[in-house]
Amino acid sequence: MSEIKIFDTTLRDGEQSPGVNLNQLEKLEIAKQLERFGIDRMEAGFPASSKGDFNAVKTIAETIRDTSVTGLARAVKSDIDACWEALKGAPEPCLHVFLATSPIHMTYKLKKSPEQVINTAVDMVSYARQKFPQVEWSAEDASRSDLEFLAQIIERVIDAGATVINLPDTVGYATPAEYGNMFRYITETVPNIDRVRLSCHCHNDLGLAVANSIAAVENGATQVEGTVNGIGERAGNVALEEVAVALKIRSDHYPYTTNLKLNETKRTSDLVAKLTGMYVQANKAVIGRNAFAHESGIHQDGVLKHASTYEIITPEMVGVSSNTLFLGKHSGRHAFKDKVQELGYELSDEKLQEAFNLFKLLTDRKKEVTDDDLFTILTEIQTDTSKVDKYQLEMFQVQYGTTNIPTATVKLKSPAGETLQAACTGQGSVEALYKTLDSLIKEDLHLVDYQLNSVGRGKDALAESHVQLVINGDPMNGRGSAQDVIEASANAFLNAVNRYIVYQQTSNKKQAVK
Ligand code: KIV
Ligand code: ZN
């Protein structure tokens, strides 16, 4: 068995998914979970793209000890310098620098000749190696590049000091046979290839990302790059959990192992889904809600007789539990603290008290609080930016019926401490509520997306809402939970507005990547 390294780019390529914007605390929570998951290297962001990304990468580099941390740079000195400033506190600073090599990208995007591209790549890798012990060089759009040219540039950047060579299928265009052939060709042709690790990076535009990644591994790649839940640009990146579980379950066929702790898969997937607002579809491989559900009578009968009849992956293997019932109304602080620790959260005394108060409020309304409920509360507490003055919901009331006009009344406290009150009507209860909130908030607001989900099952399940707003021209996400769907919706809306206030204060605006 040979070991395949797992490189996670959830916080960089994943964060480039339309509609996703994570703040620093959320990125840090995901980074900690990636470390628990056993990721070998994580790409924490793109430091030159914004102050927010820079700070997030720096904090992650200074916090994470057991997973190597990297940052992305274009092939320009200022990007490499920004990465160094953000990453120098990491135990093993690593840079990921990329330059496109396909005729399409060189002609239309870079407007450089192949010779100029080679020179820039070599210069930037040598420059980076003066600072970084580890430099990964990516040939963007490798799968649409000329193979001879690719072999030539790879040989030169290895001589310049690259330690990892990554060959992305940037637009998800390759077939498994083509992608595998490219890796075989490079392995057989480039004379100094044994000095580096070879890496694959697949996008999923044609739904071939897992097959392509495995084809690369079968032809010499020893690192797979991807994201949790497969989030990312357009149709996303390869879902790392799918690659790792495929290698594990078919270890009779694939002689490869990874360092992932597969029983952390569910938790990692849930955290990424919750914080990004990109929920996985019920039938998603490995981790979807239905991945272990057997509906037809014939299947149920088979599974009852012997699980292996229809179940190739056990729920336990990927950390799917039966959502153990947890604490109730009479549970004390001690039992609560034990449970928080068991779930792997480290909270300050102040945050623990805050979480306990929320838990107690919930037990007034809900008989049994489950692990999923607690996970929702703890994630909110851990990623709360409560130090900043924000809008607070003091009270709301919504009147709704089939024969009257939905009307909402809302009382808010503004960041400046004033009490604001208004009432509006709408076509439905959420619209009335959102129109009222909009009328009270001075920012220019547009609702782009609204989602409502239940946390776990049962008639008293918590509701969780996600919204995407455009606030003064900037996209901003918000999420909120409550036992009532309207209250969860109000919380999500205000959360987006409050995140915008924090974002503005730290002027985290992203620059476009060319
Ligand atoms: O898909 C891609 O080509 C990338 C590069 C920046 C590595 O994400
Ligand atoms: Zn990519």
From TrEMBL:
Keywords of this entry = Amino-acid biosynthesis, Branched-chain amino acid biosynthesis, Cytoplasm, Leucine biosynthesis, Manganese, Metal-binding, Transferase
EC number(s): the record gives: 2.3.3.13
Give me the ranges of the annotated region Regulatory domain: 392-514
In the UniProt record, does the keyword Hydrolase occur?
Answer: no
Q: Which cofactor does it need?
A: Mn(2+)
- What's the superkingdom here? Bacteria
Does the keyword Amino-acid biosynthesis belong to this entry?
yes
Catalysis: reaction(s) = 3-methyl-2-oxobutanoate + acetyl-CoA + H2O = (2S)-2-isopropylmalate + CoA + H(+)
CDD domains for the chain: DRE_TIM_IPMS
Quaternary structure, from the entry: Homodimer.
Q: What does this protein do?
A: Catalyzes the condensation of the acetyl group of acetyl-CoA with 3-methyl-2-oxobutanoate (2-ketoisovalerate) to form 3-carboxy-3-hydroxy-4-methylpentanoate (2-isopropylmalate).
In Swiss-Prot or TrEMBL terms, this protein is called: 2-isopropylmalate synthase
Native organism is Lentibacillus populi
Q: Which gene encodes it?
A: leuA
